[in-house]
Amino acid sequence: MLNPKNTLLIIRLLRPFFHGLIILWLFWWAILLRRSTDLIPGVQLRIPVVDSTETMLFALIAVVLFFVIGLSKEIYELQKPLHAYYKKFMETRFRWIMLLFAIAYLWFWYVFVSGISRFILVRSGVGFLLLATLFDRVRNTLNTQAEKNHPYTIHLTGNETNLLDDVRKNFLLYEIYQLIQTHDADILLVVGNHTRQQLQKLADQARISGQSFYHISSQMDLEDLISIPARVWPVMAMEYKASPLEWRWKVIKRMFDFIVSGSAILILSPLMLLIAVGIKLDSTWPILYRHTRVGKNSKHFLFSKFRTMFTHLSVGEEYGWAEALQLKKDLMASDANIRKWPLQKIEHDPRVTRFGRFLRKTSLDELPNLFNVFVGNMSLVGPRPHEPFEVARYEDRQKRLLALKPGMTGYAQLFGRDQLPFAEEAKLDLYYTQNRSIFLDLYVLVGTIKVVFKGR
Asked: If you average pLDDT over every residue of the chain, what do you get?
């Protein structure tokens, strides 16, 4: 069963989908209407030349344009309460209609050879204003009611009593907010001047917990975060984000992960079957090695990969258990461990099978990670997932990596895979957290393929 916050997210996610459907339906309806010869009773109008294929292609362009402009004007905000929505919607629609007229006439003879009917443009533009406004009015009413039934929870804290009291009084006037005393809240709002160290610690805690973080004061900017003026209705504050894309990026990235991992599972399933046979011929059951890793917001999940070690020497209840655990400790304490704490790298690891060495060298052992990506425990690109005992040794700054889903590959993997000292790996992954984008993800994916083929 969906929790209330996920229900709100789904309601908002459906908004661009329905906007697109409205635009497509209006264009198609306008085509049929334009072909009618009896719009005026008693007067037979000339049937115009209207190319349905060109017009519907133009309608698809119109859908994409409205979505892109809407994103830039923040009418598709996914997490925050709605603020000045209709003003932003009208600005979006005005820019959209101007661009449509420009494309219709500038691309005439080049793309749209038959031309786009002015009647269809005007009819669809006016119709969209009316239908989309009606749809948004209904949707926003349902959204507001849902927010009242399940208010955004705010943990309000600060060190300036008078300002804190004023902010508290303002929020008590609104039904969509609920002030709570625990840190288990949707929003952390800090009031007053704090030292950089205090504020940085609060921001990192909020990021790891998946909370929105706002600050009201004249405080300086924080390290590794972007400050943006934002309204937490009914107050203005500075919002600190790891990336300017934030929620929109998360939705696009999840869609990208879901589609690519699902396609890769289908395409690579014969190869994975052959690998499974190879593992069985080289050792014994099980085929997969599953172990606990730490994911986003410090949540644990079962990490799957092809088993590359002998079963009785793999750590875990299903594998070697006490014997394997003791051998691992001995190897970590020996000179064979060539990587600095908190991570280990055992050179010429005696626990790895012959076929396992091939799988590790080619990174084919990590193909089952695609299932982790498909269900949402991991992403295609992100910081590599580590074991709980390794994460327990993270420094405060390195814990910021837990604000993202771990990845099958990451930015740091382009610079040495598992050869880098962890401090350097964390530094590179922290760079990724602030500069992440779909384009950077594509760069990392292509770069990883190059690294694997070169055997580095």
From this structure: 77
- HSE toward the beta carbon, residue 410, CA cutoff 13 A: 25
- Residue 114 makes CB contacts below 8 A (sequence gap 6+) with 49, 50, 51, 54
**Dihedral sign from CA coordinates of 367, 372, 375, 378:** negative
**H/E segment holding residue 30:** helix 4-34
Q: How confident is the model at residue 1 (pLDDT cuts 50, 70, 90)?
A: very low
Q: Give CATH for domain 152-241.
A: 3.40.50.150
DSSP string, 287-327: SEEEEEEE-GGG-EEEEEEE--B-GGGS-STTTTTHHHHHH
Decide if pLDDT at 42 tops 60.
no
Backbone angles phi, psi at 223, to 5 degrees: -65, 140
**pLDDT beyond 60 at 44:** no
The label of the residue with tokens 């099980």 reads 286
In a 13 Å sphere around the CA of 236, the CA atoms on its Cβ side amount to 4
Q: Which residues pair with 289 in a beta bridge?
A: 305
> Residue 5 is encoded by which pair of tokens?
């916050």
Residue in 381, 355, 124 with CA at minimum distance from that of residue 249? 381
Alpha carbon 308 to its chain's center: 31
pTM reported for the whole predicted model: 0.59
Q: Are 102 and 64 in contact (CB under 8 A)?
A: no
Delimiting residues of CATH 3.40.50.150 domain(s) in the chain: 152-241
